[in-house]
Design a protein that fits this description.
Chain lengths: 414, 233
């Protein structure tokens, strides 16, 4: 405590250099947290959007080669399974025996919802305008459990869709392009002929590629339109914990003999972009902390020189080399603690202010303001990086201070 | 001087035997002390005089365990201390030795009282007792009203008295003073010397005084003359 008290007095006595050191840490921590809050905020929002639209897992094609893919190994009394890559295997489009697969999936406690989807294409026509669309035939009750469709509807309602087998839900961009209203009739051409559908609602995922291409029909209507009485469907699966998708995909692929794609694999390109952005901004902002670390090193190196005589006198009155070192390390700790605390408060306020800045984004997701992530890990990371830099910056001068030979210093002072 | 400040119960003698010390400087060895022997007794002021560079300050720092001798013995109350490890030397400095230097060497960020209580707090004495002891010491030295002033705002003589109070705070057995009056005018010099003399008698302190001042040296209980690393008388 005595060393801390002395450190505190030394810090107070050098307000200007200490404030400069403090400012470096404050801004370093604040910028680090704010940039991470933004990049990871957009990333999380993107993930939420794509999970809400396409689910965590997608089971599509049925593998034809069924031999030698699952190997059971008994070793030391343990049973293990190896799942080989199925990338080169031949496959048949669509899920084979959908009911069996569904029943199997329902056995997994991680699975939140399973939606069987019939996929196809058609052309929507209003008389004056035409638009090619990708159609998804769904069982609406199942699909609501494996997607955020209910919350994505911006006009009309699921009730209107559910009550009419000839209803269609249309992506917002298609809706704009066709210049129609909810309740209007549209014609769907292609497949086995044409269908006259009633527009029951408009959905917006924020992903422009989906909003300008996708429509939802009832699965029976879609099968009839596409001429597929049975089979040929894909499964969209929602998981309680989407982070388990990669592992579960490998496991399901091996056990179900179907190609299973996790959302991480499906969105790898965008996830890599976000990762690179987050990493890049992290490095950039860490440079501020590095510079503040250099500043602190400079301040403390000068401080040790200035305090050499005091160090000698402290040693003469019974302070050990470790005590002297502790006095300087405490000074670093005081500046660091204050810097991290003030920096975190500034970061919190900054993040809040940024989150209310209007910003319209449509493309990979839809938002009208900056999306930020409130994650304690950002603060922990910022504090940890500051801790590393400040520790090094103070440890070296502190070590030098502990090496001061009191007799030599006193002799040279006289 | 009141008796409110407790006298150290076990003040003792300080003896050095055949003490040698060599510095290495720019590749060559410089022999600073060449077999110095002396004994300082409790309750007495022992002064060491001599020209600059004769080794008197080096001798004082060796006796104060601030440095290690090349050879020879340093005995506190008959116990050899020259071989103590760093921890032992640090503890001994805190518990048994007080230093006063030519320049007061006060810590300018602290008040007079805070400077004086530092060795007390370091030795584990609680803050209340440390403050009380320090205040009494400063009162005894005529600085009671200035105890809360920052050290750097005191005059030279006052700062040196604070330094003496700090050296005495932990009731040391030995007070080692290196030119304590060297930076003071004659009036203040005599004042400080009288103070040291009083402390030696009152507390039974063993005071070793390195000085250039022959007048002060002559007032000491015993006086050693040094030249070229040796004691002459």
């Amino acid at each position: 405590m005595l060393c801390l008290e002395l450190a505190w007095r030394f810090v107070l006595a050098r307000k200007r250099p200490m404030l400069l050191s403090l400012a470096g840490i404050v801004f370093g921590v604040a910028f680090f947290v704010i940039t991470q809050a933004q990049t990871s905020g957009f990333e999380k929002f993107f993930i939420k959007t794509i999970l809400g639209t396409n689910g965590s897992l997608r089971i599509s094609d049925h593998f034809q080669d069924v031999s030698g893919l699952v190997q059971k190994i008994s070793e030391d009394g343990e049973v293990k399974f190896l799942f080989h890559s199925r990338e080169d295997a031949l496959y048949r489009k669509g899920v084979k025996s959908p009911e069996e697969v569904r029943n199997a999936l329902n056995e997994y406690p991680e699975v939140l919802g399973v939606s069987e989807i019939i996929e196809g294409n058609g052309v929507l026509e209003t008389g004056s305008r035409r638009h090619s669309a990708k159609l998804n035939g769904i069982r609406w009750v199942d699909h609501l459990q494996s997607s955020d469709l209910a919350s994505q509807i911006i006009q009309g309602s699921i009730d209107e869709f559910s009550s009419d087998q000839m209803a269609v839900l249309i992506g917002s961009r298609i809706f704009q392009r066709l210049n129609i209203k909810v309740g209007d009739r549209v014609r769907l051409d292609g497949g086995t002929g044409n269908l006259h559908l009633r527009v029951a609602g408009v959905f917006e995922t924020g992903v422009s590629q989906i909003d300008k291409n996708l429509i939802y029909l009832h699965i029976g209507t879609a099968r009839s339109f596409l001429g597929r009485a049975g089979g040929g469907s894909v499964f969209q699966i929602a998981l309680k914990d989407p982070d388990l998708a990669t592992d579960l995909a490998i496991q399901l692929q091996g056990t179900l003999d179907h190609r299973v794609v996790s959302w991480q694999e499906r969105e790898r390109v965008w996830l890599d972009v976000f990762k690179a952005l987050r990493f890049s901004s992290g490095i950039t902002v860490s440079c501020i902390l590095l510079l503040s670390g250099l500043g602190i090193f400079n301040v403390f190196a000068i401080l040790v020189i200035e305090k050499t005589r005091d160090i000698a006198i402290l040693r003469s009155m019974g302070f050990s080399a470790r005590d002297v070192s502790a006095i300087f390390l405490w000074q670093g700790a005081i500046v660091l603690s204050a810097g991290v605390l003030i920096g975190s408060i500034l970061a919190y306020l900054g993040t809040f202010l940024i989150s209310i800045i209007p910003l319209r984004i449509r493309g990979i997701f839809s938002t009208d303001s900056f999306v930020v992530s409130w994650d304690a890990n950002h603060y922990i990371w910022a504090a940890s990086i500051a801790l590393v830099f400040v520790s090094i910056a103070t440890w070296i001068p502190a070590r030098r201070a502990s090496k001061v030979e009191p007799a030599k210093i006193i002799r040279e002072t006289l | 001087m009141s008796d409110s400040i407790k006298s150290p119960p076990n003040a003792g003698s300080l003896r050095v035997e055949n003490l040698c010390h060599t510095f290495s400087e720019q590749g060559s060895n410089i022999e600073v002390l060449k077999g110095v022997s002396l004994e300082a007794k409790s309750g007495e002021i022992t002064s060491i005089v001599g020209p600059s560079g004769c080794g008197k300050s080096t001798l004082l720092y060796l006796m104060g365990l601030l440095d290690r001798p090349s050879s020879g013995k340093i005995c506190f109350d008959g116990l050899e201390v020259q071989g103590l490890d760093d921890k032992g030397r640090t503890e001994t400095r805190n518990n048994s030795i007080g230093f006063v230097f030519q320049f007061h060497f006060l810590i300018k960020e602290l008040t007079a009282l805070e400077n004086v209580r530092l060795p007390l707090l370091k030795s584990g004495i609680d803050r209340g007792t440390a403050d009380q002891t320090s205040s009494k010491l400063l009162n005894e030295l005529g600085l009671g009203k200035k105890s809360t002033r920052p050290a750097y705002k005191l005059s030279g003589g006052e700062q040196q008295r604070v330094a003496i109070a700090r050296a005495l705070a932990n009731s040391p057995k030995y007070l080692l003073a290196d030119e304590p009056t060297g930076n003071l005018d004659s009036k203040n010099s005599e004042g400080v010397f009288e103070l040291l003399l009083k402390m030696a008698k009152l507390f039974g302190l063993t005071i070793i005084l390195v000085t250039h001042n022959d007048k002060l040296a002559s007032l000491s209980d015993q006086n050693f003359q040094m030249e070229d690393g040796r004691i002459l008388i």
